[in-house]
Write a structure and sequence with these properties.
Radius of gyration: 20 Å
Strand content: 15-25%
Strand order of the largest sheet: 6-3-2-10-11
Largest sheet: 5 strands, parallel
Number of strands: 11
Helix content: 25-40%
């Protein structure tokens, strides 16, 4: 069993010695990581792919109405190099692309990213309350075959942030003090529009998620004297993996009850 040394930086904000783990170098994950980085809160990002992120896809329109607000909050400035003309044009004059935004978010935090990792399990130490991430190393980026070593372990972490999309392992684990951002959180919302808003504005919503949760973490660590990160109830209700899973179960049971009532009326 191999134990990965967690990346960390000294901080005057975080009172606990353990970093935060972010699963997924997505729009949400990278945005949240930038917030933590600016406030000197230690973190590690686990990402299954390797740069350059050629998997970034979508329609011809990149709908990010909040991009200027996001970049201002993260103290970043987007410039695009037009290689053919050899000139740099400000973001206000040029339609930025997904690659531009991901590249900008990536640059500041890239030394804290562990690429080629397939997270297989999240385990919590019942005594300390800290978390350990179990993962396999991906040796073939396209086939996603793992390297054959049974388990790698990284930790301890104060909390886990799931920014790993609709198939989020953080969401299915549904542990306390695990939080979801971006598609990992939104996948269960707005089922009535078949996820069209999430598809149309996914990157924008994801980055706003990353900023909101990131600032909540920063403010919580500034104000608390405890050794474990504890977020307020309203924040846990919105971002908490356990709370989101519990709410999903309530909706499922309510839907089944309604369906059963309808069937009973039709049959009897």
């Amino acid at each position: 069993m191999e134990k990965l040394q967690s990346s960390s930086t000294s901080t005057h904000v975080a009172r606990n010695p353990n970093p935060i783990a972010i699963i997924g170098a997505s729009y949400a994950g990278l945005t949240l990581a930038n917030i933590l980085h600016l406030n000197e809160i230690p973190y590690t990002i686990f990402e299954s792919k390797y740069p350059p992120f050629t998997y970034i896809t979508g329609g011809s329109e990149f709908n990010v109405p909040s991009i200027k607000c996001v970049l201002a909050t993260l103290d970043l400035q987007l410039q695009v190099r037009l290689e053919k003309k050899g000139q740099t044009i400000e973001d206000s004059q040029y339609p930025y692309t997904r690659e531009d935004v991901i590249g900008l978010l990536w640059e500041r935090v890239k030394n804290h990213v562990v690429c080629g990792t397939k997270v297989t399990k999240i385990k919590q130490n019942q005594d300390s309350g800290t978390f350990y991430i179990h993962y396999s190393k991906i040796t073939n980026e396209y086939s996603k075959r793992v390297d054959g070593i049974s388990t790698h372990v990284s930790g301890p972490y104060d909390c886990i942030i799931g920014a790993d999309g609709v198939l989020s392992i953080c969401r299915t684990s549904a542990l306390s003090r695990n939080y979801l951002v971006g598609d990992a959180r939104w996948v269960n919302d707005r089922w009535y529009d078949l996820g069209l808003r999430r598809i149309d504005q996914g990157a924008d919503l994801a980055m706003l998620d990353g900023i909101e949760l990131g600032m909540e973490i920063v403010n919580s660590l500034k104000s608390q004297e405890c050794q474990v990160l504890l977020l307020e109830g309203k924040v846990r209700k919105k971002f908490g993996a356990k709370e989101i899973w519990a709410e999903k179960r309530k909706k499922i049971f309510a839907s089944l009850a309604i369906l059963s009532s309808i069937v009973a009326r039709l049959l009897f």
